[in-house]
Amino acid sequence: MSDSESYVPPKVWTWNKPNGGTFASINRPISGATHDKPLQRGEHPFQLYSLGTPNGQKVTILLEELLALGVKEAEYDAWLIDIGAGDQFGSGFVELNPNSKIPALIDYSGEQPIKIFESGAILLHLAEKFDRFIPKGAVERAQCLSWLFWQVGSAPYLGGGFGHFYKYAPTKIEYAIDRFAMETKRQLHVLDQQLKGKKFLLGDTYSIADIAVYPWYGALVLNGAYGAAEFLSAHEYGEVIRWAKAIEARPAVQRGVRVNRSGDNPSGLVKERHSARDLDR
Fold first, then answer.
1. Which fold has domain 138-249?
2. pLDDT tens string for the chain (281 positions)?
3. Strand 76-80 and strand 46-50: pairing?
4. Separation of alpha carbons 73 and 48, rounded Å
């Protein structure tokens, strides 16, 4: 760790060398398109442009949950945005989401298309549109939104903080890993306390709060994220594990997490989803 221990920040930071690590090829300090690539459009009301990361899974889980309830109007096409290949910097995607992050959605169900980016905003839009998975009462709704935005604000410490330095950084920096492991464990303890005596985050009501939190924290305690369950002593968070296993068992969740994915073991995964048949095969 001699480089990190001796590093003195310059007076003015400049981007003059690759930063190393898993995502070095796509990281840059500017926004905007790098190439011309229009977005494709399918036949369904909702066009999702995404990747099966935790943030992408939030949206596909909710869409599959809506379809499982018989909400046929929630049919969707899910187009793969390969962030490793730089698809997020294509002209069409940048026009949809200037921040070049997945997921992004276009809702064609009304008189005018509605463009939405940021997973939390997409979940809220869909839940309100179909009046599902969001409580009607003011008190319960406030709790639902509080936990939804807790996830939005907290997960960067888990992903961009702990996950990056624990798994993806080119060198292991003890201070960085300790800093974000501590914060991740604190967040897990927050969830564990909230879930005591409750089936879901809001009690007996399954909501977009659970759908948002599960792909990040559920995957973490079930050892699907960063392979870090042992390192973080995930067994200490029994309530989170119980909750995560219950959500994992839901058929719509099992369908949603398979969308916009390929991986080294592609069995059961679908790069693109254009009908229920794609997941039924």
1. Glutathione S-transferase Yfyf (Class Pi); Chain A, domain 2 (1.20.1050)
2. 445 568 899 999 998 877 777 777 788 899 999 999 999 999 999 999 999 999 999 999 999 999 999 999 999 999 999 999 999 999 999 999 999 999 999 999 999 999 999 999 999 999 999 999 999 999 999 999 999 999 999 999 999 999 999 999 999 999 999 999 999 999 999 999 999 999 999 999 999 999 999 999 999 999 989 999 999 999 999 999 999 999 999 999 999 999 999 865 567 899 999 999 999 98
3. parallel
4. 14
At 4 the three-state DSSP class reads helix
Q: Which letter, b or e, does each residue of 107-138 get, where b requires 16 or more Cβ atoms within 10 Å of its Cβ?
A: beeeeeeeebbbbbebbbebbebeebbbbeee
Query: Structure tokens of 57?
Result: 């899974």
Where do the domains of the chain lie? Answer: 46-133+258-280, 138-249
Is 272 exposed, middle or buried, given 0-12, 13-18 or 19+ CB atoms closer than 10 A? middle
Residues 6 or more apart from 271 whose CB is under 8 A from it?
Answer: 80, 260, 261, 262
Q: Which two tokens stand for residue 34?
A: 């790098």
